[in-house]
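Need Protocatechuate dioxygenase's 3D structure for a figure. Predict it.
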Amino acid sequence: MGNDHEGQRVSRRRLLAGVSSVGLGALVTACAGKSPVTTTTGETVALQAVTDADLTALFAGARTCTLTAATTQGPYYFDADKIRSDIREDKQGVKLRLALQVQDSETCEPIPHAVVEIWHCDAGGLYSGAEAASAGGGGTPPTGEPPTGTPPTGTPPAGGGADLVPTDDKRYLRGAQVTNQRGIVEFTTIWPGWYRGRTVHVHVMVHVGNEKTLTTQLMFDEALNAEVLAKQPYAQRTGRDTFNDGDSIYRPSMLLKVTKAQDGYVGCIVLNADPDHDGV
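Structure prediction for Protocatechuate dioxygenase:
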């Protein structure tokens, strides 16, 4: 369930040209007006995400009202135009359900109708849309992946302020959802892998109205990282060199509250955004 419209992807430019599908640009615009988007094929993307009530206790343990730390968006962000809750495609890995609640850092009230994007690498450390560039992430790759000791042509771009121009047509482990009245979105994905120089992490971007209001990252307890990365297909790669305590971006406030589920893990966190940009 949820706003899972597989295959509905379109650039902002094509959307303006009247293509009969809907992407992130349309959602951001629609959410600013708090109205649903109806495509020319008659399909409606409702501005409502579905989250199980049993996540309440997890959110209680993850709650805070301190402004969430902002980070660079990193070198692998682009508008993937994928509006769906299950972002796994055919990627193998330990199942991870993420439930994210967005609230106002000043009022502690949920922010409905916000667009939340997430993206992260696969079990082999690769990012969709940038497989060649991210293949320079180090370690011993799983069978069938390119060697990673030396960055190949397509070395990861420097900095993290500009959007990436995709170099392949893959769009796995990327997606966007819209917060419900409780400010919650839910994604189904896999536990991220790792690459050289960074701890295990998930990128998050929150759009409120027409603005990128918050860009941050989510991390995992290292005991859980060790548990998951010892499983296949993660265990095919060795030589992980960066952990939470050695990561330049890591902050304890970025840790997800994670619990085990029968088929994987569930992670929750409250993200405190600052829509009026006054730094509170």
